[in-house]
Amino acid sequence: MPGMSAMPNMPNMPAGSTPSVTAPAAPVAGNAVSIDNFAFAPANLTVPVGSTVTWTNKDEEPHTVVANDGSFHSPGMGSQATFSYTFTKAGTFDYVCSIHPYMHATVVVTP
């Protein structure tokens, strides 16, 4: 185009090459927990007060999300079902699947 100069050679690029720009990957939802292969992932999640955490059951078997202190309790969730809970106070919240109690994880809520 008139008035535009050619792009200078970039270091470590062959002459005549054009640099490509790749968009950054979409961020991973920071407040999402997957239930997959009979495990919560991540097993330890830290969020600020006021955050809503959403669990998604990616297994074919039903699961629940039940806080050890009784602060939250999901219904049984079939495959691809979700459960969300908003944490309104700081603390450490350990939870299990009541159907499979060997499945356990923790949400740490910071002020």
UniProtKB/TrEMBL annotation:
Annotated region described as Disordered, given as residue ranges: 1-25
Family matches, as Gene3D superfamilies: Cupredoxins - blue copper proteins (2.60.40.420)
InterPro entries linked to this entry: Amicyanin, Cupredoxin, EfeO_Cupredoxin, ET_Amicyanin
Boundaries of every EfeO-type cupredoxin-like domain copy: 31-109
Domain of life of the organism encoding this protein: Bacteria
PANTHER family tied to this protein: BLL1555 PROTEIN
Name under which the protein is recorded: EfeO-type cupredoxin-like domain-containing protein
Species of origin: Mycobacterium cookii
